[in-house]
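Section 5.1 Outputs to date
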Amino acid sequence: MAAEDPDESAFDPSLLIDVAGAYLFDAPPSLTQAQVAAAAGVSVEAANTMWRHLGFSEVGEDEVAFTPADVEALRITQRLTELGVVEPERMPQFVRSMGRSFSRLADWQTRLLLSSLSEQDGPDEPPLEVLTEVIPMVEQVQGYIWRRHLLATASRMALRGVAAGAATPSTVGFVDIVGYTSRSRQMTTRALGEMVEWFERVVTDLVVAHGGQVVKTIGDEVLYTVDDPVLAGELALALVERTETDERFPEVRVGSAYGPVLARLGDVFGPTVNLASRLTSLARPGRVLVDAELAGLLRDHPELLRLRRTRRTSVKGYEHVEPWALKRPRDGRD
């Protein structure tokens, strides 16, 4: 078994704390939780509940740990409820979803910043000065990306006539790294990180190129959706075939299903999602399995795709599942 990589970052994280705190908040901590709640016009219990949903540890009642920015955040969430944008019973889900997303993003960005700054040589760019310039730039890029995705998502929904909160037909796919557990035991931390990074990068590129959207990554697996069933079939094959031309890309398997999908808070739900996941677990390495519904939609395109019925089976939550193996036409690949 390969030894773990030593910690390569010698950069002091406290510098990041100082710069981030000074940039993100106009004033140093000056308020207790009770003072924040009173200023925002909510109960201490409601304020603490939102704090927990965001993924932060609770602080002592008398601890001065908050700033006016925390008051403003509470006021905004209250206003979103008053305007009817977020229903009161859904506010916890709204806050948790944002908290989880930004927690992962912040973790990745922090590790990247610390690693990059620790590798810089020479006294010309002191880490403190670099951080002071970098953090506002990162926030600007995040804002730009969010606005672009907002426009793209709204455009897709408008074109499809999707009603808010309604389940819509779509193709759901899971692509899973084969033998990830055994691989991870034999690889260094750096090598494992590089493999996962390349896997996610290639999958994202292929999904977008086929008109789809990456919903989320789940460890060694990526969940995606594609509106067009034929493009979804071609995408699934492109994913499992990637290892033939790209030695950096790990061997994968894909499961895909078509049906109603409920999109909510950046995730997708419903039986179609569950079935696609089960098909992925049934697929052999380097193979694609699709459900009967998707197979029916792909059957009319023999020039692009070939289907073969496999043995019915039962998986958790589903009895007598009818998987179909998806392959290229016998006369070659397009």
